[in-house]
Amino acid sequence: MQPAISVSNLVKTYASGFQALKGIDLHIRRGEIFALLGPNGAGKTTLISIICGLVKPTCGTVLADGHDIVRDYRAARSKIGLVPQELFTDAFESVWDTLKFSRGLFGRRPDPAYLEKILRNLSLWDKRDTRIMALSGGMKRRVMIAKALSHEPLILFLDEPTAGVDVELRRDMWEMVRSLRANGVTIILTTHYIEEAEQIADRIGIIHHGEIILVEDKHILMRKLGKKRLTLHLQSPLQRIPASLADQPLTLSADGNNLIYTFDAHGDTTGIAHLLRQLNDLEIDFKDLHTQESSLEEIFVNLVGRHK
Ligand SMILES: Nc1ncnc2c1ncn2[C@@H]1O[C@H](COP(=O)(O)OP(=O)(O)OP(=O)(O)O)[C@@H](O)[C@H]1O
């Protein structure tokens, strides 16, 4: 099947001479939720802005649902909904008129029932006649989402959708994202809340210094790069890690009460049995122990750190 978005050898050099994207290749599958992660300044917004036709690429091609975003801009753009990072919309218009106008811009026939459904899903129906300027920040953000959906796009971009929004809106948003995906919409989101990507995304892409350094199925990524941690709660605190354990991947908590052992969950051996024997020989007793898997956040920090 043709990908929802195909990006090939995409380069962006800004007028300042700064190269924000250095030859990106990326294929977004139909109907997936793709989380694009990267530190500040990595190039996420630049990439999204090019795909949505807001910024001109220096070279390379982007196809949205098979349409070239430069040569066949209108067709490509009509497939895409964008919820930008910044809030901007016509302050004097009512919510309803804004949506109606936005749908019309894409040449779509009026469909009040569809617009009503979006507004109800976003808890904006009661505000349909309110001018945008009279809405709270969170409601304005909901309007941005409603606007992005007004022309029934196949592909939805959410650029930092939950930055500064309250818990309720965040929950509504993820519920909506899941139901859009169930209806076949492809969703690409950027977020700084990596635990959100961990919860919601099917695949993860990591961009760093204008390059895609990894694209992977979330579960595979976590299995491949995830580490496990064994924490031993000691009977009596240690001052320091004994010299005979120096070659072990151990850390001691600041209060000396916990020894933390990191191991590869998928290696042939974990080394735990050996460690426990060593502790026994050293007469280091523990009251309790527990294991924990590393989060996507830890994997991310580790990967980005390695590509500094
Ligand atoms: N108009 C511009 N002219 C020159 N440089 C720019 C321009 N817009 C962005 N940049 C630079 O390009 C790089 C990528 O910026 P971009 O906004 O795409 O990053 P980002 O990954 O979205 O970051 P953030 O997480 O902070 O939103 C940054 O170094 C930025 O300073």
TrEMBL record:
Domain ABC transporter: 5-234
GO molecular function, one term: ATP hydrolysis activity
CDD domains: ABC_DR_subfamily_A
UniProt KW keywords: ATP-binding, Nucleotide-binding, Transport
Domain of life of the organism encoding this protein: Bacteria
Coiled coil regions in record: none
The name this protein goes by in its record: ABC transporter ATP-binding protein
Protein species of origin: Steroidobacter denitrificans
Origin organism lineage: Bacteria, Pseudomonadati, Pseudomonadota, Gammaproteobacteria, Steroidobacterales
